């Protein structure tokens, strides 16, 4: 947009104008916090289906239930992947304290074990995707 002979940029959402430097940089537009913009410029987070999480109270946490360490480790692996935590998070003193309080029979795991659990989770999810794509007749990939 040219305003009074000066080249300016304009927000598509709130119509605010910005001065464009001689180099043509658009950094000021990227820093603009538009309240009208509905989308987010941040990275999307990974999500696992809620159906996988909703059964936790019955499977893992119910009173008198046997401690299912494999299920708990799988859930911790999903948490590590979704929130991009470091593998050594499971060696943190407060995490270990939390697990001991929640599950007195809990045996602490190492970052190496967590790495193996995340790798196993990756393989399971990869297998699910392959099975899904076998059933789908076609896939359309687009780029912006």
Automatic annotation (TrEMBL):
Superkingdom of the organism of origin: Eukaryota
Per the record's keyword annotation, is Metal-binding included, yes or no? yes
Q: Does the keyword Transit peptide apply?
A: no
Q: Where in the cell is it found?
A: Nucleus
Q: Name any GO cellular component annotation.
A: nucleus
Could you tell me what this protein is called?
BED-type domain-containing protein
Keyword field: Metal-binding, Nucleus, Zinc, Zinc-finger
InterPro entries, per this entry? ZnF_BED_domain_contain
Q: What would be an example GO MF term here? A: zinc ion binding
Task: Identify the species of origin.
Answer: Nymphaea colorata (pocket water lily)
């Amino acid at each position: 947009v040219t305003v009074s002979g000066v080249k300016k940029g304009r927000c598509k959402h709130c119509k605010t104008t910005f001065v464009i430097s001689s180099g043509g940089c658009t950094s000021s537009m990227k820093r603009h916090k538009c309240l009208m913009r509905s989308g987010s410029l941040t990275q999307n987070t990974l999500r696992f289906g809620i159906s996988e999480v909703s059964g936790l109270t019955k499977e893992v946490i119910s009173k008198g239930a046997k401690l299912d360490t494999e299920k708990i480790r799988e859930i911790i692996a999903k948490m590590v992947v979704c929130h991009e935590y470091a593998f050594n998070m499971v060696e943190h003193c407060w995490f270990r304290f939390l697990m001991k309080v929640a599950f007195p029979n809990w045996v602490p795991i190492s970052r190496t074990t967590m790495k193996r659990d995340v790798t196993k989770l990756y393989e399971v999810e990869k297998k699910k995707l392959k099975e899904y794509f076998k059933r789908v007749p076609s896939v359309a990939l687009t780029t912006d």
